[in-house]
Amino acid sequence: MPPTLCCRTLVGSSTTPYLRPLQQLIAKAQMTDAAPTTPPAGSKKPRSEAIAQKWGKACHDTGWTAVPNILIQRQKSLGLESIDINILLHLMAYWWQDEKMPHPSKNTLAQSIGVSPSTIRRRIKSMEAGGLIKRIERRRDNNRSETNEYDLSPLREVLKPYAEEELVERRRNSAARKQRKTTVRRPAKQSTEGA
d(Cα 134, Cα 129) in Å, to the nearest integer? Predict the structure, then answer.
């Protein structure tokens, strides 16, 4: 199933520096008919090896991030702007283990994306108000602030019904395709009247 209209609009929209990588990712997904990138049945290549083959060894060796397709496909439904997706992608890039939440600074995020720290702060606050992420304040021993941790488990929970809906739709479409392939249509009887 191709990405939703919001993603197509994003690709065609004005090109700003912080959107280019996301636009390229979405454009590539649209060109490949954007089915989920799961290894084919019987594939013996480990996922990491498949990623290296797809993106090249150098890109693979610098690290990669798993992003649920449903996040990109349902961006509009989730009320996310392109900058929000970009921030989430960066947070995911710092989220290496489920139990260890990412904690990049707002300045680090701002520099990577090419926006101001106040933009990052505003958008994170908005996503937190929308129930997509949770900021966890960290303090040092002397009560000084450290960078916030970002809990992405609320996003996971918000995505879950969309993912389940998508899976039901895929099963329904698959069953309909199988039904069309196995249904034999008999030619209509031709009338012999008037001949």
Answer: 9
- The answer to whether the pTM exceeds 0.85 is no
Query: Could you report the per-residue pLDDT of 76-107, keeping only the tens digit for each?
Result: 999 999 999 999 999 999 887 777 888 999 99
Contacts 24+ apart (CB under 8 A), 35-38: 35/1, 36/69, 37/69
The distance from CA 130 to its chain's CA centroid, rounded to whole angstroms, is: 18
**Closest-CA residue to 124 (of 140, 94, 142, 104):** 104
43-60 pLDDT, tens digit each: 556 678 888 888 899 988
CA 86 – CA 111 distance, rounded (Å): 12
Amino acid at 157: E
CA–CA gap between residue 70 and residue 166 (Å, rounded):
8
- Rounded to an integer, what distance in angstroms lies between the CA atom of residue 41 and that of residue 43? 5
5-36+47-181, which class in CATH? mainly alpha
For the chain, give every domain's residue range: 5-36+47-181
Residues 6+ apart with CB under 8 A from 91: 102, 104, 109, 133, 150, 152
Q: How many CB atoms lie within 10 A of CB 7?
A: 25
